[in-house]
Amino acid sequence: LLEKQGAFEVRGRPIPTPGTGDLLVKVPAVLLNPLEYKIRKYGLEGFFEGYPIILGSDAAGTVEKVGEGVEGFAVGDRVALQTPFKIDGAGFEQCALAQARFTAKIAPNVSLDEAATLPIAVSTVAIGLFGTVNYEGPGGAGMTAGRDKYAGKPILVFGDRPPLGKSVTVQVAKLSGFEPIIATASPHNESLVRSLGATHFVDRS
């Protein structure tokens, strides 16, 4: 995207070299984040330094190169990543730079297409639960992250559509030790939310 509310263009670029803390990832799967069409359609600003930009903040692929200082990743690893909107670090490229700290390995039974949907879901839930309280703008509930940190405390999870309401939030609540976990959903999703960790089910219909 070369300019505000401009036309998309496809251009060739040199493959970037990963710096300290970076991974070079070959990207075959990208999620279209709702924020991205709003940047193009409405000219939203504040999420990047300036034009031109390449979109595609949520993606999945295979590690091609590992930058200096990176531990826990190797060439060939299948990963999900969340990137900023910039020339060398976005998903709508064949090869993108990813910060290792915003990258996670994916399980063998998860496809790259499925994995590309996870970064926005996980980050939204994490910010919503554990982000700093801010009454004047975006923020979270201000809770402290940690396994079993809230053991024995109840939580109510609203929502019926994947991946946020009935999937990631329930799983994060379970990892955090919440008990009981009360989830609302449509009747046909009861078995799913229970399998993810909900202890009680409320029919939202």
Automatic annotation (TrEMBL):
<feature type="domain" description="Alcohol dehydrogenase-like N-terminal">
    <location>
        <begin position="20"/>
        <end position="83"/>
    </location>
</feature>
<dbReference type="GO" id="GO:0016651">
    <property type="term" value="F:oxidoreductase activity, acting on NAD(P)H"/>
</dbReference>
<dbReference type="InterPro" id="IPR047122">
    <property type="entry name" value="Trans-enoyl_RdTase-like"/>
</dbReference>
<dbReference type="InterPro" id="IPR011032">
    <property type="entry name" value="GroES-like_sf"/>
</dbReference>
<protein>
    <submittedName>
        <fullName>GroES-like protein</fullName>
    </submittedName>
</protein>
<dbReference type="InterPro" id="IPR036291">
    <property type="entry name" value="NAD(P)-bd_dom_sf"/>
</dbReference>
<dbReference type="Pfam" id="PF08240">
    <property type="entry name" value="ADH_N"/>
</dbReference>
<dbReference type="InterPro" id="IPR013154">
    <property type="entry name" value="ADH-like_N"/>
</dbReference>
